[in-house]
């Protein structure tokens, strides 16, 4: 069965009475070149386990099955279960787990399915859950080695934007704190059925063994990052002072100790500068 053939997709879906859900952001791939490239990007050796999110029609799942030792796919839409049972009938190493990835106990799931081994995450993520899903894996420090995901092209640029560049935002800094991000390739909207209104891109986030910078307090660091990027048109001294409810003099003193110009904006600061700013501000707050 050719799972990217439009006639095949329509016939299988009709046979099982499946209807697309706009609220779940369901779009199935019809470009046969995309999923093999995604699966290859996971760099599996035939023994590694993979966690897939939202297998949909099973196109990516089948490619992962051919390369990984074990594939566990979490699917929210129960009406896709009989569809997947048909499209993945010859994939002996695939298990479909019903549930919402944002609500499941992922730590328990990963431990149960993969033991103590780190898994790779691979997914065509619905656009509306892109950042929440990625940040959950990173913030909870779940045992995964990398995340190879397809997301909206603009989201890909934002997630992978290096700190110190105009495209960088709070989520960019968070991703750079936990991972080494890179955009692998773009996927046009014509590669999907039904066709979405936006183009996509595949990114890979390699989880770092240790954060990219050392901070005195992660909570304080991320609070500062959110405040700094919360008012992009303001200088970082104004946005952090307002966002964190601190005296302007404290913030300016921290910037001076971190050797950052007082008129700098958040998008101009590197990860090292953001970390140094946070650390010096923590010192001043506790003096």
Describe the structure.
It contains twelve helices and nine strands. The model has no long low-confidence stretch (mean pLDDT 95). The chain is elongated. With 287 residues, it is of the alpha/beta class. The protein has helices at residues 6-15, 34-41, 59-67, 81-87, 106-114, 130-139, 153-159, 170-178, 218-230, 236-244, 248-257, 271-285, and strands spanning 28-29, 49-53, 70-75, 94-98, 119-124, 144-152, 179-187, 192-193, 200-207. The chain starts with 5 loop residues before the first helix and ends with a helix. The chain folds into two domains: 6-207, 3-Layer(aba) Sandwich (Rossmann fold); 218-285, Helicase, Ruva Protein, domain 3. A seven-stranded mixed beta sheet has the order 4-3-2-5-6-9-7, sandwiched between helices. Helix 3 (59-67) links the parallel strand 2 and strand 3 (70-75).
Helix content: 40-55%
- Strands of the widest sheet, in order across it, are 4-3-2-5-6-9-7
Proportion of beta-strand residues: 15-25%
The radius of gyration is 21 Å
CATH topology of the largest domain: Rossmann fold
**CATH class designation of the largest domain:** Alpha Beta
**Number of separate domains:** 2
């Amino acid at each position: 069965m050719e799972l990217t053939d439009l006639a095949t997709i329509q016939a299988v879906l009709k046979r099982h009475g499946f209807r697309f859900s706009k609220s779940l952001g369901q779009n199935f791939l019809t470009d046969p070149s995309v999923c093999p490239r995604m699966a290859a990007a996971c760099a599996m050796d035939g023994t590694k386990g993979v966690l897939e999110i939202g297998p949909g029609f099973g196109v990516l799942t089948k490619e992962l099955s051919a390369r990984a030792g074990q594939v566990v796919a979490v699917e929210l839409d129960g009406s896709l279960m009989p569809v997947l049972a048909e499209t993945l009938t010859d994939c002996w190493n695939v298990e479909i787990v019903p549930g919402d990835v944002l609500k499941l106990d992922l730590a328990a799931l990963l431990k149960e399915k993969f033991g103590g081994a780190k898994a790779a995450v691979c997914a065509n993520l619905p656009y509306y859950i892109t950042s929440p899903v990625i940040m959950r894996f990173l913030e909870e420090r779940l045992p995964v080695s990398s995340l190879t995901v397809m997301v909206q092209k603009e989201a890909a640029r934002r997630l992978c934007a290096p700190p110190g560049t105009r495209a960088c935002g709070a989520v960019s800094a968070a991703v750079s704190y936990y991972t080494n991000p890179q955009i692998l390739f773009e996927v046009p909207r014509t590669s999907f059925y039904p066709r979405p209104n936006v183009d996509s891109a595949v990114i890979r986030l390699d989880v770092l063994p240790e954060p990219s910078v050392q901070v005195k307090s992660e909570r304080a660091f991320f609070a500062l990052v959110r405040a700094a990027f919360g008012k992009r048109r303001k200088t970082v001294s104004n946005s952090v002072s307002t966002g964190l409810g601190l005296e302007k003099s404290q913030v300016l003193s921290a910037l001076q100790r971190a050797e950052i110009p007082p008129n700098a904006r958040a998008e101009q600061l590197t990860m090292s500068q953001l970390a140094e700013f946070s650390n010096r501000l923590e010192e001043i707050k506790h003096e």
